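Exercise 7. Predict the joint structure of the components listed below.
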Amino acid sequence: MTPPRQRVSIRVRVDPVACDAYGFCAEILPERVRLDEWGYPIVDGTPISGELMELATRAAAECPRRAVLLERVVPAAR
Amino acid sequence: MSAMALDTADRLLRRPAGITGPLDLATHLSVHGPLSVPHRDDRSQRTELLHAVARSGLLGRGGAGFPSAVKWDAVERTGRRPLLVVNAMEGEPASAKDRVLLTYAPHLMLDGAEVAAAVIGAGEVVVCIADDNHGAAASVETALAERFRAMRSRRRITIERPPARYVAGEESALVNWIDTRRSLPSLRIDKSVPLTVGRRPVLVHNAETLSQLALIARHGPDWFRTAGTSDAPGTTLVTVSGAVRHPGVVEVELGTPVQDILARTGSDAGLAAVLVGGYGGAWLGPDQLMTPYAPGSLAAAGATHGVGILIALPTVSCGIAETARIARYMAGQSAGQCGPCVYGLPAIADDLELLGAGRADRGLPDRLTRRLGEVDGRGACRHPDGVVRLVRSALTVFADDARAHAAGHVCRGHAAATVLALPLRRPTPVRPS
Amino acid sequence: MLATSSTAFWYTTRATGIVALILLTATMVLGILTAGRAKSRAWPAFAQAELHKRISIMAMVFVTIHVLTSVLDTYVHLGWLSIVVPFSSPYQPLWTGLGTVAVDLMIAVAVSSALRQRISPRTWRGIHWLAYGSWPVAMAHSLGEGTDASKLWMDAIAAVSVLAVAGALAWRIADHTRAKDEALRVGATTRAVPPRGAPPVGRQVPTPSGRPPARNASSPRVVTTSTRLLEKDRP
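Solution:
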């Protein structure tokens, strides 16, 4: 178990302007993405880790509109 | 505190008695006093002004309420010569404050623009006025000509006329229009990175914010703070409409209770509710009218300061029906870029119209709640978020009505004339989804 | 033309040409279906897209062999230049030329797809639309040039290919029209509201009268190149 300390986490985000509801991301990464009633992605912002990372990268690469982005979340310095 | 004893907090709207038109340059200077705009090379005076603004605690009056001094820091850090944009688009149909300011006190706004431009080192200022707002544009043009003749302008100030749409006044949409002639908001993940036109960073300020700034530059931050509250200092312009005898724009101290503002414009006793902040704002119930009109206290009551709007809803009206009209209008004002907004807002409007007409199906309440949760935060700009906030507040404030409507009752208010500033036709009948 | 030449090149070029055509047809059909969102749980969209990519690569391999063997075959003279410069071959300039055009278009699509992450999505999409041109050109080339063209089995292959693509296109157009009608219905009930009217204004301030609201410079539905403030993270 990694000791708790400040670390950068990665989460999935979708650019809603670029998105055209292809739905690839929900098929590849259902752990983080589901589709609303109109086919657009609802993204769970929980950080990605381990094996999901590969799938998330794949989802970002496969999106025909390059709307899936992987965001690096740097915890704010307190 | 009775309405008449309310201090006329006229700072922005101050004028000599008997003058009804715009203040010309000479009158403007006699009312407000002289102003020395720091020279571009005078670093110490620029810094002094920057500190004065920070000390004044001036919050943006364009809806987001962002501290102005923080915005300036972000632009200065880029090291490039910025562009100052004056946002006088006033996309909210129920707001008239910027129109009034520009039509009647254009020099105050222009003073503020010059001061802001001097502090951030901007060489150019662009004043954006909606393309249907000819009165304000003409007034600013006249004022600019006056200033040019009196040699008071040290930088290029031009007027642009973007299209009159709700989202055209949104910050990123406005900058996008200046850059590409398309009023389309863009996704902004990191707000501390300023918007750009080409490679120049852009600072966007609401016209009222700059007018307040012009007064701070003259009279100092301590004077500014003599009005308002410690968290929300100064005055603010509020457009009051709906069931009041004297609808219009008033200037009040921040922190004035909502009911006092309404009383000042002659509100009838016994209102059903008050819409606060704009069509992306929220309803306050009759038991919440003591709420001070200030960002913090409004937020605590579930509402938002927005762009200084109060719409008084009389008891003869139906809050659900009015909310449905707003939702339908807002759906039509979508920029059309993001699926959840393009499809979600009309769906929410459909549900509200069914509810208001007493034709709700059994699944409507859950479906509407689900849709509100799903549309919230999933657009590139805050447009759908505002609609969600408004509708949620309606379902809370008009909870009893919503229940009755869901059970099939239609109130008389459904057929009442709208109090909204929109020439709406009857909503077209919709199929239940 | 006598079809009795026995060189290996001759047989290889015919065979690979026919296989390439079948693979290209499959590529086209998959591409049309994916773009038209024909998907289900058992037949996910990203898998279709993946299949489309891999079959197109296979098709390119067969096209390459077909082109090389046809130039190397000494029975007819094609010349290396005719691979990329259309209608420059001494032998059957028209039909060979069409084949060259198809190859040129395929090269453009392939290169742009290989560089996909480096070019703008709109550029990539524009070039990819050339694929709609390359398939019918390839079909015409094989019917006009191919020495097996009159044989029944070749006709059958051609007919099935044309039906498959035509069917996919018909489905796509019908579905697109239905989606547009749906969007129009959403738009009609929503955009029936005209732009904002004159709001009420201050007490001693008269209502500013303006001309009727100017026509909206309506925002197009085309997606702008949005400001990419995030870096796509690759571990």
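Discussion. Chain C has a mean pLDDT of 75.
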